[in-house]
Amino acid sequence: MEAFQFNQAKTVSSALEAVRSQTEAKFVAGGTTLVDLMKLNVEIPKKVVDINSLPLTQIESTPDGGLKIGAMVRNSDLAHDETVQQRYTVLSEALLSGASPQLRNMASTGGNLLQRTRCYYFRDTAYPCNKREPGSGCPAIDGFNRIHAILGTSEHCIATHPSDMAVAMMALEAVVHIQGAHGERNVPLNDFYLLPGSTPNRENVLALGDLITYVTLPPLTNGTRSHYLKLRDRASYEFALSSAAVVALLSGHRIQRVRIALGGVGTKPWRSMEAEQILEGREASENNFRAAAEAALKDAKPRHDNAFKVELAKRCLTRTLKNVTQFA
Amino acid sequence: MSSSVIGGPITRIDGKLKVTGGAKYAADYPIEKLAYGVAVPSTIADGKIARIDSVKAEKMPGVLAVFHHDNFDKLYRPAGAFEELSRPGESRPPFEDGNIYYYGQFVALVVADTFQQAQDAAANVHVTYDEKAPLVLLNQATTSNTTLAKKYSRGDADSAFPKAPVQLDQTYTTPTETHNPMEMHATIAVWNKDKVTLYESSQGVVNHHNVMSEMLGIPLENIEVISKFIGSGFGGKLFPWPHSLLAAVAARKLGRPVKVSVPRTLMFTTVGHRPATQQRMRLGATQDGKLVSFQNDILQHTSLVDDYVEDCTQVSSLLYSSPNNTAIQHLARLNVGTPTPMRGPGRTPALFAIESAMDELAIKLNMDALELRLKNYAETDEASNLPWSSKHLREAYQTGADRFGWSKRNPKVGSMRNGDLIQGWGMATCTWPAGRHAAEVRVRLLADGTARASCATQDIGTGTYTVFAQVVSDKTGLPLGKIQVVLGDSALPPGPTSGGSSVTSTVLPAIVEATQKAVDAVIQVAVYTPNSPFQNVDAKTLKMTQGRIHAQDKSPDTGVPFQDILALRNLVGLDGHAKTDADPDVKKFSTHSFGAHFCEISFDPGIARLRITRWLTVIDSGRMVNAKTARNQILGGVVMGIGMGLFEATIYDTRNGHPINNNFADYIVPVNADIPEMDCIFLDYPDTVLNEYGARGVGEIGLTGVASALTSAVYHATGVRVRDLPIRMEQLLV
Ligand SMILES: Cc1cc2nc3c(=O)[nH]c(=O)nc-3n(C[C@H](O)[C@H](O)[C@H](O)COP(=O)(O)OP(=O)(O)OC[C@H]3O[C@@H](n4cnc5c(N)ncnc54)[C@H](O)[C@@H]3O)c2cc1C
Ligand code: SF4
Q1: Together in a domain, B572 and B599
Q2: Are residues B633 and B539 in the same domain?
Q3: Once rounded to an integer, what is the mean pLDDT over residues A272-292?
Q4: Which of B13, B41, B272, B609 is the most buried (most CB within 10 A)?
Q5: Is B614 inside a domain boundary?
């Protein structure tokens, strides 16, 4: 770890001020990603601005019946919030499937969206890595890549985005509220993350010094059901090899509206509109689920050690759809 | 013979110290003026150091020195196999030359005033190498880097196998596994003139002491090795590793105490591991399931520096009755650090292959897996031609089968359903050899009415402190709270290394004898001292119970507390000292523990989700000395076996020999959610060939056989036979 300057911000404006025109400044929320990576010399900020005291800790209903979640709301608090548990079940389930209780007590909503990949080579500075040092190469492509992505990859990077929460939020069509040097803007989560392309170092649309203040969830039509399923080697405390978030509204046995996102397989939390299109207006049946899963994975590009993820992701989605649409 | 203090569920006497933070581990000692050493590991696995650039690091704040092969003291190789108890983890002294044999090999040591300064400077030591492409996988080995290590043979298996009516020929592999005890290795070296004290995390202070004397080239009496508490070792701390020497030499050169800790990442490279194995099993049987031929061809890896043998031959030679049996083991030299025993060495990988093959043979024969085991039950040890000292495996099978409900098993694959889930049932044998070594113990009865037992063995977390107190209590009648046990210091009377599940059986006779001698000494004083209530009484008619000396034929209340006798002569205490040998009777018997695992898994075929739902183990390992710690060892062993079956594998990047999952997030072991309801039954038959209590050991047996019970259950549920551990969901996406 390198020496760094440390500031504590009490207000949003002072937080923004503290990082203004600093190229190597970072906010720290729960620190469960940042401090970890600083210890590994993967992140070497010159200045760290603590945002734990910012008044961004509320979970509030919005006038339109949606939910507004402060960036500093801890993962545990969000998971156990009554409204989230009842109306946005998929989010609660996704959060509780992630990390451990201790980590969830620290991890924040903003920090979770911005957590970095678990690619072994990214986390070890003895290796080159295009995400860490643009242009240096990607040792994962010809290395051990069992945990790596099969969707959205490029020849420059095949790392997954590891968040569970973000996958659920993708299916809930969340919107990210950002404050920066040039004021405030809202970005749908679907447009927030970037594909690696030739710039895997750029993971999202945030500009230097941008602060996530809130995430909002649009209201859900009454009767909407949702579910998150996570598959991994051990039963708990591990990142997803494959996961699926499904938010669906049925009318009888017909799927009226469905939103689908996959985790563990994409270079970003993976919304699958292809799968949604196959299902909307159709019967909730095993055949249609499988067809949707085939559509979601049709562009999958497996590597040496992760070919199994193609079938695993299909099964994961099929099962999640089945669970969500099961008739009481 | 003994009271309930032996065998009952006794709580560890050191438990409170551990849970309250009072127990000091090697790295915890607060030493004045301590300097911190951080090692620089090699980032290649084969080649030579071209240049070490330490100019920048040396100028960094707090840095005291940067050591490497050009500026280190001369070190020697240990006697190793030429002497008793002189075994290093790695025989090559650190910094011997500029050669690199494995990724993570120490190439430099930075010492600084603080740990942070040393770590920072270590990151700024730049090493360049002349690099060669390494060999790191067992399947990359060729005959040119393979040598014969062990060979066992009886009868003529080569001719019997092809003629056998039913044949099974399959190959099984187990991956490299890393020990990963919670407490990482650490050494603090403190010199006082020409004498050095080493605070270690060691499973064998006596061996450590000997090896340090040889490798440092200084007399034994100038070294003391202290290891009071160990955050477990699983075998990884049996033998000294290079960091211990680095700390000792750095401290000597700097004239200042130095601590060197091994970080988690280097736990995967530099302090041993269980080597990968590949075992080709060939079993020949008659149509009714009698083995006529049993062959195991084993290949394992070792390092380029040492020959470490993970002996899979012995258990292959004796587990089942068969007139023809061969077990041949080869070593392949790879660019990895030296492997070292990991809980249940040899038997654990061997039983994965043997018990998997037996399960596959049973299926071929259309026979129940348990029935096949009974049909080939070894009534004697056919490898040594000795009778078993005590073997109740048949009863273990039966007890387990009854309790588990094995007779209700429908052998048809996928036939046992629970809603959408498929159940699989599997079983396997477990076994571990029992032994007893030489030991010396001192027991002192003290004027304050307490006793003190001491021995240079150590408690690695298994309950050795408690065993000492239990035996002294049993033989004196003193309560556990009045018995102090002192272990983990090479200055004490030499005791055994904590390995091979043999400490309890080894120290028991010595504690018994030493305690008896101390009691006898008190009785002598009682008999020969004026004003003693027992003056001139025949010593043979006296005994000590409840801490009191009294006439054998009268109750303890009629006697006096032993300390009153000491007071008559103003004595501070009386000693008993015993030195016991490896029991000669052991050579007339084959001494092994046995047992059986039964397990149930549930499989969700739609999402390839495997969960273990039930586990039962029945153990025949002599008499239990402590029901609590024994159960703890068996259940812990099974949990580790579940990890072996489902998760554990050190994964090397073949391009550079780097274990890329060298941390606890990526090298996964079971969490609570992976562990089902477990039960363990002890048959509790004393094996008095080993000691008067009839205790064998329980530290390792629980782990053996677990992985094959699991893969058998997985086959039963899914029809997929996993022959390459660990079981992964990619194999189950059927
Ligand atoms: C052992 C382990 C296991 C884990 N397992 C899982 C798992 O199974 N599933 C899962 O989803 N996650 C898992 N995680 C990741 C965990 O969820 C994230 O580390 C956590 O959510 C990050 O939140 P934080 O508040 O601690 O972020 P921090 O570490 O504080 O910050 C992360 C990044 O976000 C930036 N940042 C934080 N807040 C803001 C903001 N408001 N505006 C702008 N930038 C901001 C920081 O500058 C930093 O770059 C695991 C983590 C660990 C250590
Ligand atoms: S996959 Fe991406 S993060 Fe991993 S090494 Fe390649 S470039 Fe780096």
Answers
A1: no
A2: no
A3: 98
A4: B272
A5: yes
pLDDT of B584: 65
Mutate to test the pocket of ligand 2, among A43, A115, A123, A131 (most ligand atoms within 8 A of CB): A131
Predicted ipTM of the assembly: 0.96
A236 with B611: Cβ contact below 8 A: no
| C-alpha atoms less than 13 angstroms from C-alpha of B480 in its C-beta half-sphere | 17
Which residues of B belong to the active site?
700
What secondary structure letter does DSSP report for B516? H
Tell whether B400 and B460 lie within a shared domain: no
Residue-wise pLDDT for B191-214, tens only, equals 999 999 999 999 999 999 999 999
Domain boundary among B561, B581, B601: B581
Distance from CA of B685 to the nearest CA of A (A): 37
Please name the residue of chain A whose CA is at the shortest distance from the CA of residue B607.
A315
- pLDDT for the residue numbered B586: 67
Name chain B contacts of A236, Cβ cutoff 8 Å.
671-674
Q: Which residues of A fall below an 8 Å CB-CB distance to B?
A: 1, 41, 118, 120-121, 124, 126, 139, 142-144, 229, 231, 233-238, 241, 307-308, 311-312, 315-316, 318-319
Nearest ligand to residue A207 Cα: 1
Alpha carbon distance B702, B344 (integer Å): 9
- What would you report as the CA-atom Rg of chain A, rounded to the nearest whole angstrom? 19
Q: Which two tokens stand for residue B412?
A: 């048809």
Nearest atom (ligand 2) to Cα of A128: 5
Give the pLDDT of residue B167: 98
Residues B376 and B520 in one domain: no
HSE toward the beta carbon, residue B515, CA cutoff 13 A: 27
- Distance from Cα B141 to the centre of ligand 2, integer Å: 30
Domain interval for residue B198: 31-132+182-231+237-268
Ligand 2 center from residue A129 Cα (angstroms) = 5
What DSSP string describes A110-174? HHHHTPPP--TTTT-TTS--TTTSTTS--TTTTS--TTS-SBS--SS--PPP--SHHHHHHHTT-
Distance CA B573, CA B190 (A): 32
State residue B690's pLDDT score.
85
Asked whether residue B105 is assigned to any structural domain, the reply reads yes
In tens, the pLDDT along A114-167 reads: 999 999 999 999 999 999 999 999 999 999 999 999 999 999 999 999 999 999
Residue A234 to residue B729, Cβ atoms within 8 A: no
Task: Say what percent of chain A tops pLDDT 70.
Answer: 99
Q: Quick one: B361 and B467 in the same domain?
A: no
Atom of ligand 2 nearest to the CA of A145: 1
**What residue type is assigned to position B150 of the chain?**
K
- Cα(A33) to ligand 1 centroid in Å equals 4
Domains and CATH numbers, chain A: 5-50 (3.30.43), 225-325 (3.30.390.50)
Q: What is the DSSP string of B309-338?
A: ----HHHHHHSB--SSEEEEEEEEE-SSPP
The b-or-e profile of B252-275 (16+ CB within 10 A means b, else e) is bbbebbbbbbbbebbbbbbbbbbb
CATH number of the domain that B474 lies in?
3.30.365.10
Say yes or no: B499 and B609 in one domain.
Answer: no
Task: With a cut of 70, list the residues of chain B below it in pLDDT.
Answer: 1-3, 584, 586
What pTM value is reported for the model?
A: 0.97
How many Å lie between the centroid of ligand 2 and the Cα of residue A127?
10
Q: Is the pLDDT of residue A327 over 80?
A: no
Where among B581, B601, B619 does a domain terminate? Answer: B581
Same domain, B508 and B631: no
Measured between CA atoms, the residue of chain B closest to residue A241 is: B729
Residues of B in contact with A235 (CB under 8 A): 611, 671, 673-674
pLDDT at B2: 45
Q: Average pLDDT in the A8-37 region?
A: 95
A65 — pLDDT class (breaks 50, 70, 90): very high
Which pLDDT score is estimated for B660?
97
CA distance A234 to chain B (A): 7
Confidence check: pLDDT of A92 > 90 = yes
Residue B467 lies in a domain: yes
Is residue B451 situated within a structural domain? yes
Nearest CA to ligand 2 atom 2: A157
- Does B215 share its domain with B68? yes
Number of domains in chain B: 3
Amino acid type, B212? M
